[in-house]
Amino acid sequence: MKLNRRQLLAVAAAATTPLPFAAMAQGATSNWPNKPIRLIVPNVPGGGIDILARLMQGELQKIWGQNIIVEYKPGAGTVLGTDFVAKSAPDGYTLGMVVTSHVINPSLRKSMPFDTLKDLAGVGMTAVSGIVLVASPKTPFNNLRELIAYAKANPGKLSYATPGAGSSMHLGGELLKQQAGIEMVHIPYKGSGGAYPDVSDGRVELLIDPLFASMPHIKSGRLKPIAVLSAKRDPSAPDIPAFGEVLQGFNVQSINGLVVPAATPRELVRKISDDVAKALRTEDLKKRLLDIGLEPIGSSPEQFDQFVRDELKRWEAVVRKANISID
Predict the structure, then answer these.
(1) pLDDT score, position 9
(2) How far from 247 is each of 147, 238, 281, 299, CA to CA, in Å?
(3) Rounded to whole angstroms, how far apart are CA atoms 251 and 135?
């Protein structure tokens, strides 16, 4: 059979056309991983996200048979580290840890170096942890209803400390102000270490901080718990009431997740997600996380991507109403 010139050109073009993306994706997992993997932590060492990264590191090294190198790239409220991940090769060898600021930063910062939805793909939510509102023992209120009543009777007299402007704790305080119709003054600290003595001594009335970090101060009596910022009580501290018991629909938690560059083959993203979920299900890791107030999750990539889309919209509304900007 003879081929005309047009048919010959078509055959030649087909011979040089790259494999379809699906076929390339299938090859992406065949020998992955065959070298060390970088796990980017966008904060300084020592915090909750670092502890989670280190705990996951050990289990994932067993599963993957490769070294996992934890690298710290702090700055700009986690933006610098996440930007590094977004601009990395989409080959599964650079994974990024993200926290709640991941879904807050686009609303707070006018100039983001990456597009949260277009430049990154979710691997999965790894863990969540409770956030608690605590008060100085010298304050005249002991629960959320009493606090709201006091704030309404004394507008602008209450101040609340957080580990920093733009954090989930800061935005949780703004959401409380909006939903309860009260006024409070935000006092941002560089980390919560300096806030604890100030609140304990009554120089600042309130503090919003991760539950696991606040528990030693609660148990010692240096701070009194008002409520956790979630819809339901936290399993690690069931005696502390939840915001949702007073303010319907209120739910703010610290989230931890993993992301990769958006162009990472989908099959590889799912494999990484499945392996991370498997690590989080191991009894040893699960127990160690629960002991420090972290609840392991291990969601699918699709579930985490949808969560990010929903949270971006939620925090955009809160930030707009509060007129907050940190650029």
Answers:
(1) 46
(2) 13, 18, 33, 27
(3) 20
